[in-house]
Design brief:
heterodimer, A: 350 residues, mainly alpha, 2 domains, B: 302 residues
Chain lengths: 350, 302
């Protein structure tokens, strides 16, 4: 490759990157327009919910001015964007603590759950998708298809309840709702430093192996329930990518050369399937954020999903909108990330 | 008679546009019929329709009648074959009437969301340029929110209730239709027949409504069938959280949430409505999957 074409390539990459960042900025601004609009049309008086019913008019006015509610709307939006850019999402009405701090505290639990669920989805979903693609129309294919469609069709909160009923209530194989048994929960407060906020990592770092095992028995079920949905998605996409790849000429060439079928599929074809699959996995990770709202409610999991629903019931709008904005931003960021990864891994992508 | 009609439908040289179109539908039906899973899906959807239509006939009790003497009876109890809930209401009856609520929500969303999406998508695709850029950015922003979470935030503004739940779901469901409609519009925008209509002096509104939207309908309709399962799940999720349909209406998600309190002792109260949701949304998924294979041979993978 000549030096000139290298510079051209670098320039193109730079241009793509700025374009991407611009899109990201516009989308995030759009998210803020939506949350801001919601916060202004909601029939809850933000001043009243801070000062309470018994406040004097003077107190009421002071808080109103403090919140900037006397400014014109466009200016209020500007203040809002400025605040968010500085990481200020307002104060929770229930706890009076900054929403941003609370979200930072709740987020790791969701991240941990979603990561385990994605792992489960990939470990089961990719091989089953490959198996289905190599035997189209057979019973293996049908089973994978039906199991996948079942994953799409099951209400995740109901699957969670059924899991609890069977594996906790009847069989007693796993821990119940919550991150730990009640006894360990007390110990957690005093004996484990929360470096990451993720219970498995923190207990492992502290060397509390009994607590670690207990936490593991609690996370298995919610992660499995969440992972089932992403497994359905991943296996379906793997199948379709694989089918596509197996029709390519280089596969025929490899077969004609006498390469063992196993190697053709699991090495040659799979390598090319993995490229689009990265996008799918990143997307399924993003969708898990959504599934986590209902799953966390069922399993009393102290993550972002529980945080948003609890806030919703307490009519704690700053918390609801802050949570919504954060989830939306993570969602956008993951989408972008999958896009960038795709461009980096696949040299054909322009 | 029947045989005659089939030959007419299969005629490779149709005499009229209607015959050609019906013939296409017939061939599609033959292909759909060969897919056993799609037939299962169709049967489930038809059963749901029948259940909703015949609810007063199929029900054995009044869906709201409480009988505290007969609380929490297990399934297969004489008189209440699926058991009773915590107010002594017959679960079978409530499932049957719940089918109406589910269909009501599904139908309302299936009408509103695609219309909104079609309008946005065709206008963006037809005019192009700045209009396209702005409308598609807005679409992307709505797509950027996870649906359930946006619906939750919207319900928090609108307040709980069945109509508000429908509105919230529809407001989160339109962006994919806009995408599909825009893509279709781009392919027909430059077609000669559109240019001909324009030369005849038709305005943009007329061209979009009369000549572009009909071309987008088939792909949008497939999307609707595929989306219905998702709509059912989100509606049930809202009901479960207590933000959708309100008690005492027999909405399936709400019934699960009321059964959650005694999950370990009286398992059937939460289990049975969940099965109903699962079966119905599986039906829509199977049917949508089969329809897509029939109408879009590229994705069948065979």
């Amino acid at each position: 490759m000549t030096e000139k074409s290298l510079t051209a390539r670098g320039l193109r990459l730079l241009r793509q990157l700025t374009g991407l960042l611009l899109t990201l900025a516009i989308t995030l601004l759009g998210l803020m327009v939506v949350t801001f609009t919601i916060s202004r049309v909601v029939p809850i008086d933000p001043v009243l919910s801070i000062v309470g019913e018994r406040a004097t008019t003077a107190q009421y006015e002071a808080v109103r001015l403090d919140l900037g509610l006397d400014e014109p709307l466009w200016k209020q939006f500007g203040i809002y964007v400025g605040d968010v850019a500085q990481g200020d999402l307002g104060r929770s009405i229930r706890t009076k603590l900054p929403v941003a701090d609370e979200i930072v505290r709740f987020f790791p639990a969701t991240l941990e759950l979603a990561t385990l669920a994605t792992l489960f989805g990939v470990i089961v979903g990719v091989p089953s998708g490959v198996l289905a693609a190599t035997r189209p129309g057979t019973w293996v294919d049908q089973v994978v298809r039906v199991v996948g469609l079942m994953g799409y069709s099951m209400p995740v909160f109901w699957l969670g309840l059924m899991g609890l009923l069977l594996f906790y209530g009847v069989l007693d194989w796993v821990g119940g709702p919550g991150q730990l048994d009640a006894g360990y929960q007390m110990m957690l407060e005093f004996e484990v430093t929360r470096y990451t906020g993720m219970i498995l990592i923190d207990t492992a770092l502290a060397g509390e192996w009994a607590m670690f095992t207990n936490a593991l028995s609690h996370i298995v079920l919610p992660a499995g329930v969440l992972g089932y949905t992403s497994m359905a998605y991943i296996s379906r996409m793997t199948r379709s990518f694989m089918m596509n790849e197996l029709g390519q000429e280089y596969i025929t060439t490899a077969r004609v050369k006498g390469m063992p079928e196993r190697r053709v599929i699991w090495v040659h074809a799979l390598k090319n399937v993995l490229v689009p699959l990265i996008t799918v996995i990143a997307l399924s990770y993003a969708y898990l954020l959504e599934g986590s709202v209902l799953t966390e409610t069922i399993f009393a999991w102290p993550g972002l999903g529980s945080y948003i629903t609890d806030a919703l019931f307490a009519a704690d709008m700053p918390a609801v909108l802050g949570g919504t904005l954060v989830v939306g931003s993570v969602f956008v960021a993951l989408n972008m990330l999958s896009d960038v990864l795709y461009r980096l891994v696949d040299p054909r992508a322009k | 008679m029947m045989g005659q009609m089939m030959t007419w439908l299969r005629d490779p040289n149709p005499a009229s546009r209607m015959q050609a179109r019906l013939g296409q539908y017939y061939l599609g039906w033959l292909r759909l019929r060969r897919n056993p899973l799609a037939v299962v899906g169709l049967t489930i959807v038809l059963a749901l329709l029948a259940m909703a239509a015949l609810a007063p006939v199929l029900a054995t009790h009044d869906p709201f009648a409480q009988d505290l003497g007969r609380r929490l009876l297990p399934p297969l109890t004489p008189g209440n074959w699926l058991g009773t809930d915590d107010f002594g209401r017959d679960i079978w009856t409530r499932i049957v009437f719940g089918a109406r609520i589910t269909l009501y929500i599904v139908a309302l969303v299936a009408i509103t969301a695609p219309v909104l999406g079609l309008l946005v998508g065709t206008v963006a695709g037809y005019f192009g340029g700045v209009v396209d850029l702005i409308l598609m950015r807005i679409t992307d922003i709505f797509l950027a929110f996870p649906r359930l979470i946006l619906a939750l935030a919207l319900v928090s503004v609108l307040g709980p209730g069945i109509e508000n739940a429908v509105l919230a779901i529809a407001l989160t469901a339109w962006p994919p239709y806009a995408r599909v409609a825009r893509a279709e519009t781009l392919t027909v925008r430059g077609a000669d027949y559109i240019a001909a209509v324009r030369l005849q002096g038709a305005g943009s509104g007329r061209i979009i409504l009369g000549h572009v939207i009909p071309m987008c309908l088939p792909s949008v309709i497939i999307r609707v069938t595929l989306d219905m399962a998702g709509v059912i799940l989100i509606a049930a999720g809202l009901g479960f959280l207590g933000l959708g349909v309100q008690p005492p209406l027999p909405e399936w998600g709400l019934m699960i949430s009321s059964g959650r309190k005694f999950l370990f002792e009286q398992w059937w109260v939460a289990t049975i409505p969940g099965l109903a949701i699962f079966i119905v949304s599986l039906g829509f998924n199977l049917l949508g999957d089969g329809l897509r294979d029939v109408l879009d041979p590229r994705s069948s993978g065979k």
